[in-house]
Specification:
The chain is an alpha/beta fold. Helices cover 30% and strands 22% of the residues. The strands form 6 sheets. Strands 3-2-1-7-19 form a 5-stranded parallel β-sheet. A hairpin with a 2-residue loop joins strand 5 and strand 6. Helix 1 runs parallel beside helix 7 and helix 3 crosses helix 5. The chain is globular. The site of flavin-adenine dinucleotide has 34 residues, from helix 1, strand 2, helix 2, helix 3 and helix 7. Flavin-adenine dinucleotide binds next to helix 1, strand 2, helix 2, helix 3 and helix 7.
């Protein structure tokens, strides 16, 4: 039997892979199948962003006199509807996993102790084990962090009314996405980022993100000393002074859920240490997904789950962290896949950003298209596609980058028009620039 701890994207995909290969598989899940992605991560951000984009668009059209009113979100109704869809998806995932042949034990905490595995107090006999217990929001040790009115993505359903003022602590993608949502919903949002906001992001994309967050106050290099309030949060103190607020949202990163995994080697933040086949320091115990640390992305967690399963099945397979696309969901999908930028050539243009294509009509807003390439060979080293469909473009371009495509390969590319086709056209143009340079 193979025991899998955690039914998020990593554990669930691993379990289906193994059961499909006729292995007896037991999945232990102490929360909801689908994990953080479905219950408090990607799905809630998508659901709330859908509404935010609608309001954003209506507001722009209203300001231009094209439509006569701007919808106002009913936040409790949105949370309720979101919860209903999450329930529906949970049932679908449960049925899909069981019909693949996986036994699921709900409501018990899985635990490792050396080579032994437990579901609650019951020891399970296993030939191999996969730890896929995921991660949770990091709660920094700031005085006042336990006050009512302080939320994380996990506790967000407890926010019964929209606050007038909100402070978001963190400078990451999640901070940016929630800032966009809440500011578009009408909250007065301030981001307090300990270092540079979106510090690991391409400079063009960061500039675009900051433009799309024009209604948000972003304070960089601003640590938080304490959160204050009598019985409920009412202020946040920084070295520069005090800010009044009705709510605090913590977007200070994620930490691996590895406390129940005894015996396997762990790193500085508690992440389980694995090799590129997802093998831990203990024979026949594998780990995958957020519990092994960043990049904390669902497609990566799923892929790691498959890699772990295949290795258990005796199919040697390794994890490759090159060419991983990602996205920041604001007014547009600010999607990108960048392997290398130092010493590379690059071209950037305002990208098509209307719902179909062209620039947004009638506001004239633009997204961004960018290609980064090796100056001698033209091999693609990165792309940014910020506009409708950006995520799709980045996913496929990342795949072509994995296959070592160069900008010259795009000479033969014919796109659909209208579409969000900035990146492909730019790659063609980069090819012509490189070829012109080589002319005598
Ligand atoms: C706000 C937010 C937004 C995000 N947005 C995106 C996005 O847009 N795109 C993207 O790719 N990624 C996004 N992510 C990251 C994504 O959610 C995670 O990378 C992904 O869920 C990791 O999958 P996992 O299976 O490793 O872990 P998890 O999804 O965390 O699942 C782990 C599962 O294990 C269970 N579990 C934990 N401990 C035990 C135990 N001891 N015994 C039994 N069960 C246990 C948990 O209940 C959970 O169901 C976001 C995350 C957050 C917080």
């Amino acid at each position: 039997m193979i025991v899998i701890l955690g039914g998020g994207p990593a554990g669930r995909l691993a379990s289906i892979r193994l059961a499909s290969a006729k292995k007896q598989v037991t999945l232990v899940e102490n929360g909801g199948i689908g994990g953080q992605c479905l219950h408090s991560g990607c799905m809630p951000v998508c659901a709330m962003n859908d509404v935010a984009r609608l309001i954003h668009s209506a507001r722009e059209l209203h300001d231009l006199g094209v439509v006569d009113s701007v919808p106002v979100p009913d936040f409790p109704v949105l949370l309720k509807k979101m919860g209903e869809i999450q329930q529906k998806i949970t049932s679908v995932l449960d049925a899909e996993t069981r019909s693949a042949g996986v036994d699921i034990i709900y409501g018990k905490t899985g635990r490792l102790s050396g080579k032994s595995v437990f579901a609650g107090d019951e020891e399970l006999k296993a030939d191999a084990i996969i730890a896929a217990t995921g991660s949770r929001p990091f709660v920094p040790a700031i005085p006042g962090v336990d006050l009512p009115g302080v939320f994380t993505s996990k506790t967000l359903p407890g926010m019964k009314v929209l606050p007038e003022k909100m402070v978001i602590i963190g400078g990451s993608v999640v901070a940016a996405e929630f800032a966009y949502i809440f500011s578009t919903f009408g909250c007065n949002v301030t981001i307090l980022s300990r270092s540079t906001f979106l510090k690991d992001t391409d400079k063009h994309l960061r500039a675009l993100a900051t433009r799309e967050l024009a209604g948000v106050t972003i304070r960089e290099n601003t640590p938080v000393n304490s959160i204050g309030g009598e019985g409920r949060v009412s202020s946040v103190r920084t070295p520069g002074g005090q800010l009044d607020t009705d709510a605090v949202f913590l977007a200070a990163g994620l930490v691996p859920n590895s406390e129940s995994l005894d015996g396997v080697k762990k790193g500085p933040i508690g992440e389980v240490v694995v090799d590129n086949r997802m093998r831990t320091s203990v024979e026949n115990i594998y780990a995958c997904g957020d519990v092994i640390g960043p990049p904390y992305l669902t497609p990566v967690a799923r892929h790691q789950g498959i890699v772990a399963a295949d290795n258990i099945l005796g199919i040697p397979r390794t994890m490759d962290y090159q060419n991983i696309p990602r996205s920041i969901s604001l007014t547009h999908e600010l999607a990108y896949c960048i392997n290398k930028s130092d010493g590379m050539g690059s071209l950037a243009i305002p990208g098509p950003a209307g719902p179909g294509s062209f620039w947004s009509v009638p506001t004239g807003e633009t997204g961004l298209a960018k290609v980064i390439f090796e100056p001698e060979t033209g091999e693609l080293a990165g792309i940014c596609a910020a506009g409708p469909g950006g995520g799709l473009i980045a996913g496929y371009m990342a795949f072509l980058m994995k296959k070592h495509f160069s900008v010259h390969d795009f000479e033969e590319f014919i796109e659909v028009h209208p579409s969000t086709d900035g990146v492909y056209g730019l790659a063609k143009y980069a090819s012509s620039v490189l070829k012109k340079r080589d002319l005598p």
